[in-house]
Amino acid sequence: MKAPRSARRDAAPQTGRLPLIAGNWKMNLDHLQAIALVQKLAWTLQDHGYDERIVEVAVFPPFTDLRSVQTLISADRLPLRFGAQDLSPHASGAYTGDISGPLLKALDATYVIVGHSERRSLHAETDQVVGAKVRAALDSALVPVLCVGETAEDREQQGASAVPVAQLRAALDGVPADADLVVAYEPVWAIGSGQAATPEQAQEVCTALRVALGEVLGAEAADRTRILYGGSVKRDNIADFMRQADVDGALVGGASLDAAGFADIVRFPKHVTR
Ligand code: PGA
Predict the structure, then answer these.
(1) Is residue 67 part of a domain?
(2) Ligand 1 pocket mutation pick from 85, 189, 191 by most atoms within 8 angstroms of CB
């Protein structure tokens, strides 16, 4: 399934899906640094004439920053959303060190990243655990940003799409067709490596993921669900990704820690339609 192409060859595809630029801060910035970054980001976006009807912006700070970020966004009515980087599959109980969906919802978080490759590899999160976390997020009315992606070895042995599609199918087990979720395609070899996928490589896998979404959740879900690309996204390459019909935004790691650079990534419509 392909979104309709825009008439202008150099324009962003008109898909009806609101682009989402998401900043995954990983384990960086304390709550004071978080406040400074969000303030600077908001000012910079405002200077650029940012319009939240054209592109949505979300930040994903560490847990310890969330309350400060929430307070700032709500007090200053900033046009930004935020989410957490992980959640427990359980709602409450004896799970020392874990943070649940209800705790995040109480902070007014909109999103939560689930199944990031660093969680899968460093915390041995299996597809089953990731699926349980997706359902836990939905149970708390949080929008999961479900990350999938292949290693260089997977790609060599099974092709580009096999592993991401299998991860998506496994994580969507038991998820209702009307679930509000975001998918992030993040090839493991592109994360933090400075070696981004090519726009064509991203489009190929994002198309396969959209087809799989259609098979599992139905055509309406496939059409409505945003699929992001992540892995070494920078201000210089964002426009090329956003020209792809099935890429609806980006999950940005390193480049989201710099307000000016991240704001330039958010400005991609200017570059795409120029
Ligand atoms: P990167 O990270 O932009 O630093 O490659 C992306 C991610 O891990 O979400």
Answers:
(1) yes
(2) 191
